Amino acid sequence: MARYILGRVLSLILVLFVVSVVTFFLMHQVPGGPFDETKAPLPPAAKQNILRKYGLDKPIHIQYLNYMKNAVLHFDFGIPYQQPTTTVTALIAKSWKLTVQVGAMTVILAFGAGFTLGIYAAYHQNSWIDNATTFIAMLGITVPSFVVAMWLILFFAVRLKWLPMGGWNASGSCLIGNDFICTDWIMPVVAYALGPLAIIARYTRASVVDVMRQDFTRTAQAKGLGSQAIMYRHILRNALIPMVTALGVIVPNLLTGSIFIEAVFRINGLGRFFVTSIFNRDYPMIMALFLLIAFLWSMTYLFTDILYTWIDPRVRLGAEGGA
Amino acid sequence: MTARAATPIDLAAPRIGRHRTLWHDAAGRFFRNRLAVFGLAIVLLFLILALFADQIAPFPYDKVYYDRVLRFPFDLPGHPLGTDEVGRDYLSRLIYGARTSMTVGISVQIVAFSIGVPLGSLAGYVGGRTDFMISRFIDTMSAFPGLMFSILIISVWGGGITKVIFALSITSWIGIARLTRGQILSLREKEYVEAARCTGVGRNRIIMRHLLPNALTPILVAISFGIPAAIFGEAGLSFLGIGINDPIPSWGKMVGVSNAYVRVYWHLALFPTLAVALAMLGFSFVGDGLRDALDPKMIE
């Protein structure tokens, strides 16, 4: 096990290295930079000074090594071109909380509702709730989140005027204090959660139906165990296993999904920052955000793989005993 | 399957001489699937709109009427879906938007097929060091979110339809390559391949004549799911404002622009979102139908 994890960590480092090299060289290929002189030409000496200040006068591989040294040793990703008075790290530190808040609520809603709907649908196959779940799952899987978000806005904000059009923790929309239980949480979280919810509901329904047909469930029924006990002790525990796979599919997608949700609802989190950084050609910011996302993405895969062997002992036994 | 084998009529049917191929059976199963047929109808509709946009659309996509800015549907005769924020006919832009979406979706999958299948079959058949290199390359590429990679490429090289196709193609072939490799690996030890090898058939001919045709069906299904994924990718990039450039219409871009006007001009948001959703649903139904039709083992 330790060997397996070590190998995975090594390959993760290799991947991050490749990603950083590719991103870095791509970023430096860009036509037009932050100090373009088409509008206000700089005197050559001033330009030299600026280039030296940001280390842009050195050969590109030296620039890369400097960058990585600072990033890994001091957690210093340079100075963002859009706000030269702060650091990239400080800007990210300022805006990640909103993104994590939205993401956490989305995961809770997606898993809670998806799991419940999936179990209900499995227990009441071909009922109207089962059919409705299938329909929602189909919509959630195929229709992009920003399309769902626009529909929610059109219906609940424009037509019914029940919910605010966008924002997050906007004043006047919160029930408790200034930042707790706000009405402007509802649409972003629902639009964001629909896709993951659909995947979870589908996985859960399939695995509960599968477990219900297993011999051990029939044995439990035959020995007279109550249906509640069977559900909690036998069915749900086994149905949880595919959840880990779902987690591995969903969490990485949340990382890219936040870009769209934050754009639609004007939430000033990391995703919104990312888009403005691209428009401003802010290389240090783009580079740092990319490395962050690549890191989180590979960590999720590593984590779910380990979780998988831990939750389901059959995965380990299968490899050795050839079950 | 078992039920069919038990009936003597079906067993006898092929012997009598009626020629039944895999494709014939698959088409039969596909057309019995109502959702798949519905999806196919949607896909065909969008393909026709894309191909004949010049004839169908009432106005050119970039014709600006300064006196007809932001009109609601049926506000003016001749603009059944209204006009956009600079006074262009919205229906025409939606129709031409189908052309953008279909072009990107299909082109990306053509690239994915022509890179993924050769690389995957090479890795799977040759094995050894070649396989190791290609597999590590695939692993590294998939350790990164595909859409993020496309955003990165676009942010460096700029937007436009060819660059969007390029940016989306860069990651689209990975799944196809992995799938092809797996298929070839499982097929290459089959008896008929060994027989071909024994009779002195060359490597390329074995791959082309014996392995690929048998590996083709799951690849086709993957391609059919890849088209909506690429349409989603283009819509997403354009939605963020970094995909297709003006004045070429794109549904994603129309949704993105409409976000600023949605409080009053609801039609700007409603129609392109419906178009994106319909196209994605249509292609997904076709993909589901193809998967069920091409894999008889799925049906019990």
Overview of the structural elements:
The complex is a heterodimer of chains A (323) and B (300). With 323 residues, chain A is an all-alpha fold. Chain A has a domain at 96-268: MetI-like fold, CATH 1.10.3720.10. Chain A is built from 13 helices and two strands, in the order ααααααββααααααα. Chain A has helices at 2-27, 44-53, 60-74, 88-123, 128-142, 145-159, 186-212, 215-222, 227-239, 241-265, 270-279, 283-311, 313-321; strands spanning 174-176, 180-182. In chain A, strands 1-2 form a two-stranded antiparallel ribbon. In chain A, helix 8 packs antiparallel against helix 9 (227-239) and helix 11 (270-279) packs antiparallel against helix 12. Chain A is globular and about 90 Å long. Chain A starts with a helix and ends with a helix. The relative contact order of chain A is 0.13. Chain B is elongated. Chain B is 74% helix and 0% strand. In chain B, helix 6 runs antiparallel to helix 11. Chain B contains 13 helices and no strands. The chains are: A mainly alpha (323), B mainly alpha (300). Chain A binds chain B through residues 11-12, 14-15, 18-19, 23, 26-27, 29-31, 138-139, 141-144, 146-147, 150-151, 153-154, 157-159, 165, 252-253, 255-256, 259-260, 263-264, 275, 278-279, 281, 286, 290, 293-294, 297-298, 301, and chain B through 139-140, 143-145, 147-148, 151-153, 155-156, 158, 228, 232, 235-236, 239-242, 255-256, 258-259, 262-263, 266, 269-270, 273, 276-277, 280-281, 284.
